[in-house]
Design a protein that fits this description.
Blueprint lengths: L1 H8 L11 E2 L21 E2 L2 E3 L5 E3 L11 H4 L17 E2 L2 H9 L14 E2 L27 H21 L3 H12 L5 H6 L13 E10 L2 E10 L4 H14 L12 H10 L8 H11 L3 H8 L4 E11 L2 E10 L7 E8 L5 E6 L6 H6 L10 E7 L8 E9 L11 E3 L3 E2 L3 E11 L4 E10 L7 E8 L4 E7 L6 H6 L9 E7 L9 E8 L8 E3 L1
Parallel strand pairs: 1-22, 5-21
Antiparallel strand pairs: 2-6, 3-4, 7-8, 9-10, 10-13, 11-12, 11-14, 14-15, 14-16, 17-18, 18-21, 19-20, 19-22, 22-23
Length: about 525
Amino acid sequence: MASDSNSKNNQFRVVLPVIFTFGASLVFFQGNAHADDANVTANTAVPTTQTSDNQQSSNYQNANVALMTAQAVQTHAAEQTANTDPNKGAVDISAENAQNVANAPAVDTQPNVSTNQISNNQADPENGTASTTVSGTGNINTNGLSARNVQFLKSIHQGAVDGWKQFGVLPSLTGAQAIIESGWGQSALTTQGHNLFGIKGSYNGQSVTMPTYEYYGGRYVQINDAFRAYPSNYESIVDHGRFLKENSRYSNLIGQKDYQTVTRLIRQDGYATDPQYTNTLNRVIQQYNLTAWDQEAFNDNINTGHIDNVSVQGDNLKVEGWHATNNYDQSMHHFIILLDGNTKQELYRQEVPGTYRQDVQNVYPNAKISGWGGFSLTVPNSANFAGKAIQVVSRYTKNTNGEPNGGDDLWFNSVNLNTNAGYLDNFNIDAATNTLNISGWHATDQSAGKDHHFIILYDATKNRELGRYEVNSAIRNDVAKVYNVYNAGKSGFNLQVTLSPALIGDNIQVISRYSNAANGEGNYVDY
């Protein structure tokens, strides 16, 4: 990997460097440019906050980008790829506008820039290690795992436990099989259809067609076949339990509580032909202590729940989720309490009516409250919440003031409000067409009520705007997995811009802006 990176860095000389900043204020960074693949990598973000109309928060991404003359990059033109918004054609920076900027005198004054450094996390990160136990994964061992693999365990944890409660399939077996068969969630079937186990057919009418090998006439032949497509890893995990329960050949492992017995039986029953399959399952279960999920499933003292949403929506803070427990009786009141996740200071509490959740009732039919344990709370989004990590506590109590008295508390993980995050996935020039290709994502709670998404190009050398272009927000499920932010799932953008030769040698800055005005002014938030 290192030798490949070095070969990329040495392939060309930067002729006319353009230092790229993904932000609203003037910040310059330097780094290496990769000519052969035009990839851009970011390491550190520099934040600052400005005020315009209501409130404008601005964050920055430094990237390694070089803008060169057409002659300097012509040899690599065939290797460049354009990532365009299908609803937007390439747009031009007019020659007149570019020339006006080129002829304008440089402005000496620059905006204030904070030097406080914060980390810039990409969606679906590859790197980073987790502590021994991580919230959301149960009490299993996650020591040394990458953040991506920890996220995968979080996505299958509840489904594995629920598979026992519904179908009697041991959670440690399910977890180990999911890890092995999906390659930690990176198989083509998983990434395209959340199908962790290669189960064929359709799920609720949904399927994905993939190439596979079948044995015909004494040899393996590649064919295209339909595989079940699930809305998330959770449904795939639970459907795996249903598959084993409904298939009589596996009836001898249903309800078994010893993982070594179950891993031996599933191999004997013909689930896999690999003679080492049982040993492989056992090693995975032991290495990550997946039996902790078994003990969690066996525990009859149910006190569990999930936060479906904590986000800023317009002028309100929205909190939604559910809480199921056995320590409940009909004389109790259900309170939702909001705390500052860092100081644990209480910010708000309110009694909430139960909202019925059939999905929760199906999974926890024996809990004294489950189906009616759903809750939805809308709170005016005051400055009391702004910028804080909000921790939600769900409480069943006999006291009308919400103080503890019987029942159960459930403390959920903190959620950081007013997140303003972004990343530039692609910033390169197609020398053959003199086209600048830009793609990335920008997720922020403050985009609520701001229906116009603009990409603004700014000549930082002359302190002049070159143009602003409204883009259609693109689906980014990878961002939504990492950021519990209002618009994370639709935060992507793609843009093509035709450059003018008059810009060669200038520093170009890119700004992503959500605005409530069709011209990009009014109330807006920048990254």
